[in-house]
Write a structure and sequence with these properties.
The chain is of the alpha+beta class and 426 residues long. The chain has helices at 2-19, 49-69, 103-114, 135-141, 258-272, and strands at 37-42, 71-76, 92-95, 118-122, 147-150, 158-161, 175-177, 184-186, 196-202, 223-228, 233-236, 243-244, 249-250, 290-294, 300-303, 314-317, 327-331, 337-341, 344-351, 360-366, 375-379, 385-389, 395-397, 409-411, 421-425. It has two domains: 37-272, 3-Layer(aba) Sandwich (Rossmann fold), CATH 3.40.50.880; 290-425, Trefoil (Acidic Fibroblast Growth Factor, subunit A). Helix content is 17%, strand content 27%. The protein has a nine-stranded mixed β-sheet. The protein has a six-stranded antiparallel β-sheet with strand order 17-18-19-20-24-23, with no helix packed on it. A hairpin with a 5-residue loop joins β21 (375-379) and β22.
Length: 426
């Protein structure tokens, strides 16, 4: 009986084992997360072994970094994608070792950045001895003008961070050591350009900078990282590896400095609009209605005669709390918003005729997704805002007076109180 009982217990255990629910395995992976933004990098890869090697290294480093930071990276030598709209699906364009050469490529690139597209350029992307061949790019967009001199041979430099308020530079210390590069200087003094914000420059402790006494810098001011506030752009002076030119062997890495890499990652996220809406604590809500009061004349942004039809002029008028002076900010992408009128939220503040001209008037128009209907709120130090049009890079502006009925326009962004507004609810 004892042996029979044991057999019965064993049989019962086997039955229970067969009928028990199987142990749950690892849960199936969630659906792949959509990328925060897309990057396309242009290069030529035909001139100077050091530049070619930088491109090779970049095309290895950026895909790894993209995978770690939830963006995509595509590299191409087809510069005509700038001309035919092939970049329109990308939030960021990189120039690794060159710049557009044909008129169609240049026009397409200008159209892309004026519409709010992000751009980051490296080293040779700014090199020219004929800035007049494309003055918008070299003198206005980059602000650098012509190449003036370079250091040799390639060395690292101690860089001084000049503006840690910019999203690309918030992670930088007061000074840091760059990776090795050849360094360029320029014919234009970038400090004299009101649109240029220099983010980092050569610290005097770097001098003499270079290994050839005849091609070294011993003193002076040399910007290395900067942005143009009229556009979503960053330029980095590095991008030239040290090389053994006889064997084409790499002797240094552009991505050897973790701090410099932090700038690249944070810069790309800013350019791509990843997490770049209003900063925590900013008063801009997507559900509240705001009046916009000019810091210059104290008037409010107003839809003329409280109308909501297409073509209604946007004007300055004494603040009165009516629906004609109440607007809502509804985000689109990349840090931009449409500014909807309370009387009819489908109507938004629009630059007439999609014009990129100075003093182009503003109007109400039914929202259709145009860059001329999207504005980037930029927080100012005193809590005010200025608003940058996506298609033109210009700012919403009053005439600076308190006169009722003056039409609002777009003008080049600056520090004028005519472009500064206080947001108030109610």
């Amino acid at each position: 009986m004892t042996r029979l009982a044991a057999r019965l217990l064993l049989l019962l255990a086997l039955v229970l084992g067969l009928t028990a629910p199987a142990h749950a395995g690892p849960s199936s992976p969630a659906a792949a997360q959509a990328p925060d933004f897309k990057v396309i990098a242009f290069y030529s890869g035909t001139w100077d072994a050091a530049h070619i090697d930088f491109v090779k290294e970049a095309n290895e480093w950026f895909p790894r970094t993209a995978a770690q930071n939830n963006f995509t990276y595509t590299a191409t030598t087809d510069w005509n994608l700038l001309a035919n709209g092939g970049v329109n699906d990308y939030q960021v364009v990189l120039f690794l070792d060159d710049a557009p050469e044909t008129a169609a490529q240049r026009t397409g690139f200008e159209r892309y950045v004026r519409a709010g597209g992000g751009w980051m350029g490296f080293h040779v992307a700014a090199f020219t001895t004929d800035a007049g061949s494309w003055p918008w790019y070299y003198n206005s967009f980059l602000g650098s003008g012509n190449f003036r001199s370079n250091t040799w041979g390639p060395t690292s430099a101690v860089l001084r961070t000049e503006d840690r308020t910019h999203p690309a530079a918030t992670g930088l210390p007061a000074t840091f050591t760059s990776s090795v590069s050849e360094w360029y200087s320029w014919s234009n003094d970038l400090r004299s350009n009101p649109n240029i914000r220099i983010l980092a420059s050569v610290d005097p402790s770097s001098f003499p900078l270079g290994t050839d006494p005849n091609q070294s810098w011993y003193s002076g001011y040399y910007p290395i990282l900067w942005t143009n506030t009229q556009y979503r752009m960053l330029y980095a002076n590095f991008g030239h590896n040290a090389m053994n030119y006889d064997t084409h062997t790499r002797l240094s890495s552009t991505f050897a400095s973790a701090t410099q890499n932090r700038f690249l990652i944070d810069g790309l996220k800013w350019l791509g609009g990843a997490g770049n809406g209003p900063a925590p604590g900013d008063p801009i809500s997507e559900t509240a209605w705001y009046s916009l009061t000019s810091a210059a004349g104290g008037t409010c942004v107003d839809a003329r005669a409280a109308a909501t039809a297409n073509g209604t002029a946007i004007q300055q008028y004494a603040c009165n709390g009516t629906l004609a002076q109440q607007f809502q900010f509804r985000s689109t992408d990349g840090g931009y918003s449409r500014i909807a009128a309370r009387g009819n939220p489908q109507q938004v503040i629009d630059v007439t005729g999609v014009s990129v001209d100075d003093n182009a008037p503003l109007q109400l128009w039914s929202y259709a997704g145009g860059g001329n209907q999207q504005w980037r709120p930029v927080r100012e130090a005193d809590g005010g805002y200025h608003f940058v049009a996506r298609h033109s890079g210009k700012c919403l502006s009053t005439d600076g007076s308190a006169t009722n009925g003056v039409s609002l326009v777009q003008r080049p962004c600056g520090t004028s109180a005519a472009q500064s507004f206080r947001l108030r609810t109610g």
